[in-house]
Amino acid sequence: MIRLYKNWAPVCAVGALLILGACNADDLLNVNNPDEIQLDQLDDPKLLDVRMNGVVDAFDDAYVGEVIRYATFMTDEMVTGLNWEGHARVNERIVSYQEGPTDAIFSTLSRTLRLADGLAEHIRGWADDNPARDFDPALAKALAYAGYGAVVMAENMCQAVMSPDPDNPSSTVLSQLETFSAALPYLEEALTVAQRAGDADLANLARTGLARANLGLGNWSVAANHASQVTAGFERWIQYADLPGGRNPLQGTSHGGNFTHGIHPRFMGAHPSFDGTGFTFRDQGVIAPQTDPRIQHLPNRATGHNGLTPLYKFVQGLRYSDYTGNTIAPASAACPDCTGTDAADMPLLTEFDTDVLMADYLDAQHHYHEALAMQAGNEAAVNAFVNARRAVGNQAPVALTGQALIDELRRQRARDLFMGGFRVPDLRRWTRFDPGNGPFADGSYFPTGPHPNAPVWGNYDVWTCFPIPRSEYEGNENLSPPLDPNVPPGI
Question: Which residues of the chain have pLDDT under 70?
């Protein structure tokens, strides 16, 4: 089973991360605390629940705290007012292998994969030693989280490094497609074990992950097959509580005077590049265009953390547990179901205890219908799905064919999965498998031309993913740093 190597002195300093194994950093850090749990003591079924909680917490931290919060900077979902230079540059699509966002995304996803893989390996041994105890649900869960860690890594990283032996780290750099392929064995085994255990939720989680990975690989028929078997009503939530250590890390993005995130003009109501009519970014009182309950924002802009960038605070969409289905736009002949809800009564992106969807039936249905759309002969089914989703957004039905239908399916996916951690992989996938049909003037899917905060920030750059961080090159003696780290290594 694949393991991921991470040898970085600061990581070794955290006791909970001793599961990662290869932490010596040339003896720069030498800790001897007899009261701590030693590595060989982790191989004990009495620690199953504690270790499983560690796996789940690691993924939650990676997905919400890093991917949704920071990887999304690279896309047309978000404008940031964060006054951290390295993070702000990502919002211009300028990425460095030396800076915080790159290392944080890779490190937290690596930690998820390593913890989940190590737990799964121990569970197999425990099952052999305790034949009367049913370990299948735990094994399926650990494998599913390992698979999701690898999938999300493939979606956001340009490249990855994985090693079967943490004491002998690999010199093989995996491409995005190779990283997706590395996720498949985890998810396939998770599905087999979950079915054997009769655990429908874990089976659905594995199927959704398999659909997501195969979509990333361009395996359209395989993706459609897995997604079609996800049962209606399935939901897997990343859960939070308003307690120290358990709070949603996105809360500060839209709350308080130092808030950091605002909606990108492309997603603001009827922006010209999205739906054909619109307004000027920086306008106040942007109410009338907000007819789609899935994408709402406060009507008036303000500046947050950097005191400079105009930001319209996010309101929760479908991937968030406090989503209301209401609109700030009032009812009208064009939108009889609009509610005219006072903006003060709309829940901002997250509270401390707002849960976030990890996977559900709806994202599986989007994987299914995108896979259908990439194969001939499925336009009737795709049109029906598109119109069902347009109805949710208070939009009239359409009858489309060809590229126009694919474009509309993508618009509905963007609305349904808004701020759910899907935008970077979606834009990368469409760039790879359907180049030149993006909404920007040059046919790009990622934003190009002047940044919304121009002329202060200038134009967008060319990055579409995060490189292997400098910390990994320093910790893995078998890797050579890139010849020119300023050149993106891939799509």
Answer: 1-37, 39, 164, 269-279
pLDDT in tens, 345-402: 999 999 999 999 999 999 999 999 999 999 999 999 999 999 999 999 999 999 999 9
Count CB atoms within 10 A of the CB of residue 130: 11
**For the purposes of burial, counting CB atoms within 10 Å of the CB of 298, is it exposed (0-12), middle (13-18) or buried (19 or more)?**
buried
Residues 6+ apart with CB under 8 A from 349: 250, 251, 253, 254, 261, 313, 314, 315, 316, 320, 419
- Residue-wise burial string across 250-281, b where 16 or more C-beta atoms lie within 10 A, e elsewhere: bbbbbbeeebbbbbbbbbbbebeebeeebbeb
Residue 458 zone, left/alpha/beta (φ > 0; ψ -120 to 50; rest): left
Q: How many whole angstroms from its chain centre is CA 154?
A: 11
Placement of tokens 């205890």 in the chain:
353
Cβ proximity of 169 and 23 under 8 Å:
no
Distance CA 475, CA 470 (A): 9
- Amino acid identity of 452? P
pTM recorded for the entire structure: 0.91
Specify the pLDDT at position 16. 36
